[in-house]
Structures are given as C-alpha cells and as structure tokens.
Specification:
This protein is of the alpha/beta class. It has 10 helices and 7 strands. About 45% of the residues lie in helices and about 20% in strands. It has a 7-stranded mixed sheet with strand order 3-2-1-4-5-7-6. The longest helix has 21 residues.
Length: about 230
C-alpha cells in the first residue's frame, strides 16, 4: 500500500458530511449489483451499504483488502482483491448494474482502458457514477503528495468516457469554494499536507452550505467533477 494514498484516505476520514453527500448523489442509481471501484478503507462503502443492493468492493491493495474483509461481512457484500480490469476478465461483460468510482480514476495509469473495462462490466441501461478531481490548472503540491496523475477538464473527461461507448447523462463541476482553497494550498503556498483539523472544519461548517447551494445551481467551475454516464 502506498503510504501517500493511505495518508490521503486518513485525512479524508474526517469528511463525514462529504461522504454522506457523495453517497446521496449516487443513490438514485444504486440498485441490483453495484461495483465500487477502488474501495480503499470503505469510507464511501459505508454509505453505499445502506441501500438494498449487492455490493462488490474492488480493491487491489492487500492491506486495504484485508481491512475491507474484516469490516464488511454481511452476505450481500463481496470484497474482491484485484483491479476493475481483473474483475471484468473474471466475471465477464454486463455483470453490474452500476459502477461507482470516486477519487480513483486520477490514480490509474491508463484511465481510458480502465473506463473501457467499466463500460464492459455494465449491463445495458446500467450507470457509471464518477467523481474525480477537476481543472488541470489546479494541479499542485497536494496532487503530487496524493499521487494524482491528472486533474480533469470537463470536455476532456466526457470525450474519454464516450470513446469507450458510454453516454454521458450529466457532467457537473462541484465544490467551487474548495477550488480556491486547493489552489491556495497547492499552487500558491506549495503545501504538501492536508491538515485534518482544516478538513474537519470545512466538512462541518462550509461543505454543508455549499453542497446545498450547488445541488440547485451547478457552478461553472469547481474542484471536482460529478459525472453520471450510461451504457
């Protein structure tokens, strides 16, 4: 396990409202067999598990896989050790109703091939629920610390998704205020650490307000992209 990736998940463990919101954003598409791509320590999995679904947690890292296996023991949750491409090779095409991928695609060396495997996994009419870092110009020391390979422009990401045969239903920027903070920390101040107290404060007092506003008014710019696509 990358110590850097573990650090990122550790810092984000403070963001309870954020993960609850993310689970809620994906809720309309959670039914049947849901595959979570890169489940990590299960921060989002907890929210997905509240729905009456069959959940497959995909995680290639041995340590994370062990943690997930101990944490999720109900009969409707499976923990698969491997990549999404390996799951597709083993389970075959059209074996999932929904694939959820949150803050994972930016770590993958070949994101188009990864998206292609996701597209193959989905049944006709199934959905990809995707959440990734946005805006390449925000890429800075925090992205380097978290081993991000890229941040996404909306048009670029939509093009990549559609190139593998999926149709994008919506692609919206989120977290406009967070974009300013990320730029200040990672580009201007060259910070390499995400302060857990700051994460907790932002999650408790800022994010609940901004997320409500952005649910009614999608900002033209943001720290992240929230995308739903269908096969």
């Amino acid at each position: 396990m990358s110590g850097t990736f573990a650090y990122e998940l550790g810092a984000m463990a403070q963001a309870r409202n954020y993960y609850s919101w993310l689970g809620g954003a994906f809720a309309p598409f959670l039914h049947g067999t849901v595959v979570e791509h890169g489940a990590g320590t299960g921060l989002l999995s907890d929210r997905l598990r509240k729905h009456p679904i069959r959940l497959v947690l995909v995680e290639p890292d041995a340590e994370f896989h062990g943690m997930l296996s101990e944490r999720f023991t109900d009969p409707d949750t499976e923990v698969f050790r491997g990549t999404i491409e390996e799951l597709n090779r083993i389970r075959g095409d059209e074996s999932a109703d929904t694939v959820v991928s949150a803050n994972v695609l930016e770590h993958v060396p070949d994101d188009v091939e990864c998206l292609r495997a996701i597209a193959r996994l989905l049944k006709t009419g199934g959905h990809l629920c995707l959440y990734v870092p946005a805006r390449p110009e925000l890429f800075g020391t925090l992205d380097e610390r978290f081993e991000h390979r890229r941040r996404y422009d909306r048009e670029e990401l939509v093009s990549r998704i559609e190139s593998v045969g999926l149709r994008v239903v919506s692609a919206q920027y989120r977290n406009l205020v967070g974009a300013l903070g990320w730029w200040l920390s990672g580009r201007l101040l060259k910070t390499s650490n995400l302060n857990e107290k700051q994460v907790r404060f932002y999650d408790s007092y800022v994010f609940p307000i901004t997320s409500r506003i952005e649910s009614r008014w999608a900002p033209p710019y943001g720290q992240n992209l929230l995308v739903v696509a269908t096969r």
